[in-house]
């Protein structure tokens, strides 16, 4: 993935290119922009750039090749509003289109490295927390996936790591003690196994994940136990279990509903706690209830989710910081740039949190968005039932996460 990750360096001094990090800033600011996607229609429909201020248009590269021969390049984009950002898979076909557009006097730039480089863009921001720890939120803007690293007393834990960025966590957290999943993910390939294999981290998953068929390789678990002098390898955690990371305490809170084994992780603070809610509660909605047991089991799962929210999450004080596992285009970052929120704000803003149980079930099971791309293979991989190489894993999880029920 090195060719994708250094796209920003290649674009830095090129006025005809836009680096992935620059695109991320543009999307967060909502600046208007036309995105010209020159991939084939099926690639565009599977996954394309979206966001506040974005108008996405698909015109296949072949039409630019034809227009170059006939001199009709400007006619192709006559109805498009400038500025234009052209994209393709790797940045080559879109680069050709941009050369033609700029020669015609059109304000156009190319996404350096293409959609692959966009998917590989990952950034970290520090949360403002009241705890004996430093917390970083890792943001993958191409999919809205969030992960967290908690540092305290020379030790670290990562929550909901992505396999695609396992080396990044390992480099950033020299003494990685735990790699934790809040549930069996359906939108991305988990990095828990990889981190347990490559570092001294102990793999931690909810106890219910084993009942769904999760099968850690015995050598991975035993190896983690041998490498970690601080604690034995821990494959599964129950409600109320505690994990010590330096001076910080992480407590497992069972919050089933999105999946049967879903948990949230509480970081104890002085005057306020931080609650890492995985796919239970988001800034703009709640977790969808149909990914594990399908449409037939969605209503029962929604009732379980309602109980988790009302009896567990909403019992926390208003000052509690909610740190979710995903965000969507509708989410607005806090002043510190992170996608987090005080619980009080979510109580007041999300209608789903004030519904009765019947209203909530209807809300959570009607008009659901499409399921995440390749979710069945991703779940099988995260359950240990299928093995995929790194490149296949990267391809499987391209696209939006679609794990939420929007409010």
Automatic annotation (TrEMBL):
Residue ranges of the region described as Disordered: 1-30
UniProt KW Metal-binding keyword: yes
UniProt biased composition (Basic and acidic residues): 1-13
GO BP: glutathione metabolic process; hydrogen sulfide metabolic process
One Gene Ontology MF term: hydrolase activity
Keyword Hydrolase: yes
Source domain of life: Archaea
InterPro entries xrefs: Metallo-B-lactamas (IPR001279), Mito_Persulfide_Diox (IPR051682), POD-like_MBL-fold (IPR044528), Rhodanese-like_dom (IPR001763), Rhodanese-like_dom_sf (IPR036873), RibonucZ/Hydroxyglut_hydro (IPR036866)
UniProt keyword terms in alphabetical order: Hydrolase, Metal-binding
Domain Rhodanese: 29-127
Classification via SMART domains: Lactamase_B, RHOD
PROSITE patterns in the record: RHODANESE_3 (PS50206)
Annotated PANTHER family: PERSULFIDE DIOXYGENASE ETHE1 (PTHR43084), PERSULFIDE DIOXYGENASE ETHE1, MITOCHONDRIAL (PTHR43084:SF1)
Protein name as it appears in the record: MBL fold metallo-hydrolase
Organism the protein comes from: Natrinema longum
């Amino acid at each position: 993935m090195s060719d994708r990750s250094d796209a920003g360096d290649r674009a830095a001094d090129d006025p005809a290119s836009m680096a992935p990090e620059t695109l991320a800033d543009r999307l967060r600011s909502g600046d208007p922009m036309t995105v010209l996607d020159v991939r084939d229609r099926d690639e565009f429909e599977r996954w394309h750039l979206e966001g506040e201020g974005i108008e996405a248009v698909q015109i296949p590269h072949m039409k630019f090749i034809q227009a170059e021969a006939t001199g009709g390049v400007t006619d192709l984009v006559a109805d498009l509003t400038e500025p234009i950002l052209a994209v393709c898979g790797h940045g080559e076909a879109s680069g050709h289109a941009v050369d033609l557009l700029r020669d015609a006097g059109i304000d156009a730039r190319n996404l350096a490295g293409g959609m692959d480089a966009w998917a590989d863009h990952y950034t970290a921001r520090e949360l403002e927390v009241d705890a004996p720890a430093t917390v970083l939120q890792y943001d993958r803007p191409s999919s809205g996936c969030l992960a967290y690293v908690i540092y305290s007393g020379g030790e670290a834990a990562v929550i909901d790591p992505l396999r695609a960025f396992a080396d990044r966590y390992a480099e950033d957290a020299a003494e990685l003690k735990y790699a934790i999943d809040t549930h069996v993910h359906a939108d991305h390939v988990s990095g828990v196994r990889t981190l347990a294999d490559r570092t001294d981290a102990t793999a931690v998953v909810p106890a219910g994940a084993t009942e769904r068929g999760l099968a850690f390789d015995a050598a991975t678990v035993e190896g983690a136990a041998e490498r970690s002098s601080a604690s034995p390898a821990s494959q599964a955690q129950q409600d109320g279990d505690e994990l010590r990371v330096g001076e910080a305490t992480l407590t497992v809170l069972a919050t089933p509903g999105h999946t049967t084994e879903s948990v949230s992780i509480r970081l104890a603070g002085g005057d306020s706690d931080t609650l890492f809610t995985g796919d239970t509660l988001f800034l703009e909605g709640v977790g969808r209830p149909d990914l594990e047991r399908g449409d037939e089991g969605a209503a029962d799962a929604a009732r379980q989710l309602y109980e988790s929210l009302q009896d567990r999450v909403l019992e926390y004080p208003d000052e509690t910081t909610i740190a979710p596992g995903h965000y969507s285009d509708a989410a607005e970052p806090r002043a510190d740039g992170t996608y987090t929120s005080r619980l009080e704000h979510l109580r007041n803003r999300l209608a789903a949190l004030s519904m009765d149980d019947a209203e909530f079930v209807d809300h959570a099971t009607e008009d659901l968005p499409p399921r995440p791309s390749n979710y069945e293979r991703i779940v099988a991989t995260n359950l240990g039932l299928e093995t995929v190489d790194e490149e296949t894993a990267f391809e499987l999880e391209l696209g939006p996460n679609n794990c939420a029920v929007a409010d």
